[in-house]
Amino acid sequence: MALPLIPIISALTSIAPSIAGWFGGDKAEDAAQKVTDIARKVAGVNDPQNAVNKVLADPSMQLEFMKQLEQNKVTFDKMYLEDRQDAREKHKHSKMPAILSVTLTSGLLLFIAALMYVNIPDANQRLIDTVFGSYLTAWLSSIGYWFGTTRGSAEKTKHAK
């Protein structure tokens, strides 16, 4: 049931962008259901689409929705971090982190070298910027996923326990 909820409630990312990160991994279904429950409660209706539409249309409901999300933020962050931790734990003896990290890092270095030494036509500048930004994001996500992220993430994990 929750899979169809994600497209419906994704509209709420326009007022609460942080919820987008909760809709991935094994816990996406649980997160979608909890966000839907909050929207239903705030809007006072049972239908998810109607609840989302009402919340988006009324600034006071938007404020209440955001307050409810904030009150449940620790729960959502805990689900997200548990999902990430479980994935890391399942693959801790895998060679994939090393292979993926070396491959992506090598590709990134080659991309940077190419940007420095290859003349890119003006018409393609924006395309190359976009592709480079996407590649860099993928590299950062991979490194963050396999090796953990910043101290702030460690603090979230500590507080979630």
Q: How much helix, percentage-wise, in residues? A: over 70%
Spatial gap, N to C terminus: 29 Å
Secondary-structure class: mainly alpha
Biggest β-sheet description = none
In total, how many beta strands? 0
Nearest-angstrom radius of gyration? Answer: 20 Å
The 3D shape can be described as: flat
Number of domains: 2
Low-confidence stretches: none
How many alpha or pi helices? 8
Overall mean pLDDT score? 80
Series of secondary-structure elements, N-terminal to C-terminal? HHHHHHHH
Oligomer designation:
single chain
What is the percentage of strand-forming residues? under 5%
Describe the SSE topology.
Blueprint: H1 5-9, H2 28-43, H3 48-57, H4 59-71, H5 73-90, H6 96-117, H7 125-147, H8 151-160
Helix pairs in contact: 2-3, 2-4, 3-4, 5-8, 6-7
